[in-house]
DNA sequence: GCCATTTCTTGCCAAATGGCAAGCGGCGCA
DNA sequence: TGCGCCGCTTGCCATTTGGCAAGAAATGGC
């Protein structure tokens, strides 16, 4: 199985050279997740730093009243793990679930730390990924505060049209912070974009 | 000027011992910011890792139409800097402004990196702070999606009652993602809590 | 102490969204 | 093949929130 995508990803922050990426990539283990399976369950400590190469993942939390709230959606090219649980070794508040069959590469917490120690440039990369995720979350927060649900839906679709193929609309709705009825009406007004 | 608060903060992630904290704290420089002054301007590269010991800071961005949107509020005991701009050395999209006269301790990007290099435990601390900020932002995102504006306002006040003393309500409103009129109505319904 | 500005509230109405329930259609499974 | 569940839409109405404008209250500068 080729790890070309993983190598490209390792180089994406600029902290790691092509040669270093090729070596570091060999430390990751391949992993498949079947549709509907959980990569992480609430209550567990997240122990998989997972780079997704194929498929779609969804993160969700449970409301006080037991309703699922979709907190994240991820496709190929993204790292998926529960940041606070993983680094603090505390129980996760979220679930991570495969929406389709998935493939990727992963490291355990221990392996990641060993690699951080052996490879300072990988540590630098790790920070870059954290900073990137932080910035993305801030942008999403700003959009949620300033833009209408319809505008956020349009933006999401333009950025990730592939979601529509495999993600039930109710998950997209709760990711956007609206009900599935409202999303349905927005879609009708948009002319089924 | 005493740096006791700074030392306590350095120990707060568990990565740094008391003795180490005392030494590391000496590397920070004291800094005061007068009310209404900017710690950071959009377009600049954030170069101040600032630990606030006294006063209140506000981060805000400008909408496409020029409206200010309050993206963050911080009081004593918090580190304030623009994560993406600081670590990526890119122009900031946000402003950071003193709402009251402020005092604290700071490091430049260069100083922070030297300290990361000289003190592995401080690097660990740095990651801890990033992870803490990430988790807080996720919690805020979840609340914004799942809770009513009124509930978010109540929660904010309970967590930080001191804000009401020095932060104009319009800033709190835009931080919550609502207009100042709406906040005013919410406060009336709440019985001026 | 006085004036200008900012902050906050309120009234009026429109728009966005939610809650609930019904209905439709597809898909999997027995 | 038929049944039942799941995903999506729609209708009806209530609630929340926004937009705008006016006015009251507080604040700051001189």
Automatic annotation (TrEMBL), chains A, B:
UniProt xrefs under PROSITE patterns: CNMP_BINDING_3
Pfam short name (any one): cNMP_binding
Domain Cyclic nucleotide-binding span(s) in chain numbering: 16-116
Database matches in CDD domains: CAP_ED (cd00038)
Record-annotated membrane-spanning stretches: none
Domain of life where this protein originates: Bacteria
Official protein name in the record: Crp/Fnr family transcriptional regulator
Source organism of the structure: Hymenobacter cyanobacteriorum
Taxonomic classification: Bacteria, Pseudomonadati, Bacteroidota, Cytophagia, Cytophagales
């Amino acid at each position: 199985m080729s790890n070309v995508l993983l190598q490209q990803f390792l180089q994406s922050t600029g902290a790691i050279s092509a040669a270093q990426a090729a070596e570091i990539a060999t430390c990751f283990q391949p992993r498949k997740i079947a549709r509907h399976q959980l990569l992480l369950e609430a209550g567990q400590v997240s122990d998989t730093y997972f780079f997704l190469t194929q498929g779609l993942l969804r993160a969700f939390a449970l409301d006080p009243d037991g309703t699922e709230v979709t907190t994240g959606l991820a496709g190929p090219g993204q790292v998926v793990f529960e940041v606070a649980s993983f680094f603090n070794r505390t129980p996760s508040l979220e679930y991570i679930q495969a929406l389709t069959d998935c493939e990727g590469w992963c490291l355990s917490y221990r392996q990641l730390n060993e690699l951080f120690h052996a490879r300072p440039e990988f540590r630098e990369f790790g920070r870059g990924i954290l900073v990137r995720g932080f910035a993305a979350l801030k942008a999403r927060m700003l959009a949620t505060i300033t833009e209408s649900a319809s505008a956020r839906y349009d933006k999401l679709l333009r950025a990730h049209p592939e979601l529509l193929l495999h993600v039930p609309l109710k998950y997209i709705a709760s990711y956007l912070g609206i009900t599935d009825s409202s999303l349905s009406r927005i879609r009708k007004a948009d002319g089924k974009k």
